Amino acid sequence: MDADKNAATRPSMKIGELAKTANISTRLIRYYEEQGLIESTRAANGYREYDPVLVDRVWQIRGLLEASIPVKIIRDILPFLDDPCDIHVTEASPELIAALEEQHEQMDQRVHFLTRNRDAIAAYLESIRGARHL
DNA sequence: TTTCTTACA
DNA sequence: TGTAAGTA
Fold it and tell me: Could you tell me which PROSITE patterns the record lists for this protein (predicted)?
């Protein structure tokens, strides 16, 4: 079924390939790994090998990071993102829960902030377009 | 050629 | 984060 373009979930992607596929630098990939955000195995020659599913994982990490979520928290919720069914919730410490609630609240505020500005810009654009037609 | 580690800007 | 150096 998959002869050439489907190496779906096999631990074999070199850092350069992952970088190109996920559109991030190899430098950042190594950095995420240093921070314990992603894992990799090592080939006999010492080269890192990545599971192709990390392409998505990297995007999730970027999103979380861009939302200013601390690496410490990302580390804790990443395993949950892997299998949402896994019951990490049961062992979530009060500290983690508190941190996540705070982050959630902050994200909510950002969403409102962005929404408001987006609408303001949309309205401004509208008025400009209208004026242009005069 | 690609990747690795370490380190500086 | 990018980039340089010296390897494997």
Answer: HTH_MERR_1, HTH_MERR_2
Closest residue to C3 (CA, C1′): A27
Both A80 and A100 in one domain: the answer is no
Question: Which positions of strand B lie within 7 Å of protein CB atoms?
Answer: 2-7
Average model confidence (pLDDT) across chain A: 86
The per-residue pLDDT for range A85-107, each reduced to its tens digit, is 666 666 778 888 888 898 899 98
CA angle, residues A100, A106, A109, in degrees to nearest 5 = 145
CB-based contacts of A90, cutoff 8 Å, min separation 6: none
Nearest-angstrom CA–CA distance, A15 and A54? 11
Residue range of the domain that includes A100: 93-134
Residues A120 and A69 placed together within one structural domain of the fold: no
